[in-house]
Amino acid sequence: MADSQDPIVRALYNYTTCDVSDALCKLKYRNGGFLSGLTMWSPQRQDGPTKIVGPAYTVKYVPLDDPALKHPTHYIDQVPKGAVVFVSCPPRIPNAVYGGLMSTRAQALGAVGSVIDGRFRDVQEQRDLAYPVFARDVGTAPPAELLKVAAVNVPVKLQTDDQDMEIRPGDYLIADVNGVVVLPVELAEQALPLMQKQVEADEKMAVEIKKGMSFVEAGKKFRS
Prior knowledge:
The structure is a single chain. This protein is α/β, with parallel strands linked by helices and 224 residues long. The protein has one domain: Ribonuclease E inhibitor RraA/RraA-like (Glucose Oxidase, domain 1). The protein is built from 6 helices and 10 strands, in the order ααβββαβαββββββαα. A hairpin with a 2-residue loop joins strand 9 (172-176) and strand 10. Helix 2 (17-26) packs across helix 5 and helix 5 packs across helix 6. The chain is elongated, with a radius of gyration of 19 Å. InterPro entries: RraA/RraA-like (IPR005493), RraA/RraA-like_sf (IPR036704). Substrate binds at residues 99-102, 121. GO terms for molecular function: 4-hydroxy-4-methyl-2-oxoglutarate aldolase activity; metal ion binding; oxaloacetate decarboxylase activity. Mg(2+) binds at residue 122.
């Protein structure tokens, strides 16, 4: 667990991404905050206890012919301590938009992990750092021939046709072996007690199911 002064971050480390989604579904937030297609690649591939929690620091890549000006400095040098770097890449781009040196710098600045909505590279280098990376896929070529960074710390859209999801600077990102979830900052204090209630109910259900109680009966007893 990262050392955070944010009590919400500290509390969220007690819950899985599934717990967060359950709470957000109860609050009628679409898809329970799940960000589809983003999975763990480092420090292991979809295995192990890795969990990251932190406010989003967003990076927006656009095609070179986009009229937006290129961001004047490298985004990685401004990563806040405790943040989760979220890199947004236009869809159907074969090049990677994130690499090992990015993680080296982010880790040195105290970032807790990176989520790449696109391709990343230097997989073994990432794993040697034991730095958490969640991404859509891998690649080998750098982005410069196709893309530029147009903005940092702006709202970005998840790059998939499956969902219409937005990630805003400061929203909480939670990622583990189940996937990646965005928790809007304004819903965090409402969601946390719902997570605790659900987890306590599910723990009681598990005990009784192992003793022979049916799922339906246990659900009625502990979830209703």
